[in-house]
Design goal:
Shape: globular
Strand order of the largest sheet: 3-2-1-4-5-6-7
Low-confidence stretches: 154-160
Number of helices: 14
Largest sheet: 7 strands, parallel
CATH topology of the largest domain: Rossmann fold
Oligomer: single chain
Number of domains: 2
CATH architecture of the largest domain: 3-Layer(aba) Sandwich
Helix content: 40-55%
Strand content: 5-15%
Radius of gyration: 20 Å
Order of helices and strands: EHEHEHEHEHEHEHEHEEHEHEHEHHH
Structural class: alpha/beta
Number of strands: 13
Length: 364
């Protein structure tokens, strides 16, 4: 069984794909995987850490606003298609699986040309352009949110024809998330005197969140141990304290361990992050990336009382500090958030998706 995986540009479309690959490998050790991603995203490091072969192709994101970069996008897409076609011809996959990331589009087009069956997973509440383009020739479509499974339609957005094969599965998380790791307290120089505040901006980091944290760090470290994933090339905070631990990127075994240990998490609202918070029942303060699909994800968290959400004018250092302090002294609120986010998504998503991919392969 040969399975082609695709996605990237950020860590969001990569994590669930790796989770499903790990689940398949657990039951089918002889399965072969090849991951196709971008040249400059964080996926290469993530994929190789999971011991899966990685290859990069050209990729250009189509911007839904005026940008001179859109002029080059069609040419880049054509070049990426020929690169993907060469990879597909050599690998001869039985099934392709993707959870988004525009690099998956030329890979899916190439896979379809050689008769490969395609499974796509829609993570976010808003259906992404990548999945809209791939959906018309997908064998199966799955979604993270139940409502999205009802809203999904095929085509590039020009058609309102309802898609028939939609399965609500939740969002996969890597099984390593649950496994005990080495003593993370020792490796991060943590102690038992103060709670752990974990700050995440996604695999690529967040300048906005980094600036917010920088403004209130002196107050935070007096009451918390702050573990801060700043993002590659974004570790510009010049502050040293025994309770502040900045890292550009936390490698996965340590990331899973520190996430389990955290008392409170500050994060974006990408679906991979939400799924991990849900799996571990973590109280969180969510700051979605402005004017993106993340705001719709965050709205679901807010409506279900699954996290504290800060958007727009609410996103100030002072407001963030107030919320952090209020949660430290309101255990009942924290427990409610933990319970609600834990019940937000199904927690057997990896198993469900792995079964779908394997079943489709068996039908070949």
């Amino acid at each position: 069984m040969k399975i082609l995986l695709a996605g990237g540009g950020s860590g969001g479309p990569v994590a669930p794909v790796l989770a499903v690959a790990q689940e398949i490998k657990k039951h089918h050790p002889s399965a072969e995987f090849l991951f196709v991603g971008t040249k400059n995203g964080p996926e290469k490091e993530m994929v190789e850490a999971a011991h899966i072969k990685f290859v990069a192709i050209s990729s250009s994101k189509w911007r839904r606003y005026f940008s001179l970069k859109n002029i080059l996008s069609p040419f880049t897409l054509v070049m990426a298609f020929f690169q993907a076609r060469k990879i597909v011809t050599r690998f001869q996959p039985d099934v392709m699986f993707s959870a988004g990331g525009f690099v998956a589009v030329p890979v899916a087009f190439a896979a379809k040309q050689v008769g490969t069956k395609i499974v796509i997973h829609q993570q976010d509440a808003r259906i992404g352009l990548t999945n809209k383009l791939i959906a018309p020739f997908a064998t199966e479509i799955t979604t993270a949110f139940e409502q999205t499974s009802k809203d999904f339609y095929s085509g590039s957005g020009l058609s309102n024809k309802k898609w028939k094969k939609i399965v609500w599965v939740g969002n996969p998380v890597r099984p390593d998330l649950y496994k005990p790791a080495a003593d993370v307290k020792k490796s991060f120089n943590l102690h038992d005197e103060l709670p752990v505040l974990l700050v995440l901006g996604g695999a690529t980091g967040s300048v906005q969140i980094n600036k917010l944290i920088e403004e209130i760090l002196p107050d935070l470290v007096s009451a918390h141990q702050v573990v801060h994933q700043t993002g590659k090339g974004k570790s510009s905070i010049d502050y040293q304290h025994r309770n502040y631990h900045p890292l550009e990127l936390i490698p996965f075994p340590a990331y899973a361990a520190i996430l389990r240990l955290a008392h409170l998490v500050i994060a974006r609202s990408g679906l991979s992050t939400i799924a991990e918070l849900s799996a571990l029942h973590k109280a969180a303060i969510i700051i979605p990336m402005p004017k993106t699909h993340q705001e719709e994800n965050a709205k679901i968290l807010e409506q279900t009382h699954s996290a504290v959400v800060l958007t727009g004018s609410e996103v100030t250092p002072e407001n963030l500090k107030k919320v952090i302090n209020s949660m430290k002294f309101n255990q009942k609120r924290v427990e409610t958030l933990q319970s609600n986010i834990g019940n937000l998504l199904p927690h057997d998503s990896s198993e469900k998706l792995a079964k779908i991919v394997v079943t489709i392969n068996d039908q070949n």
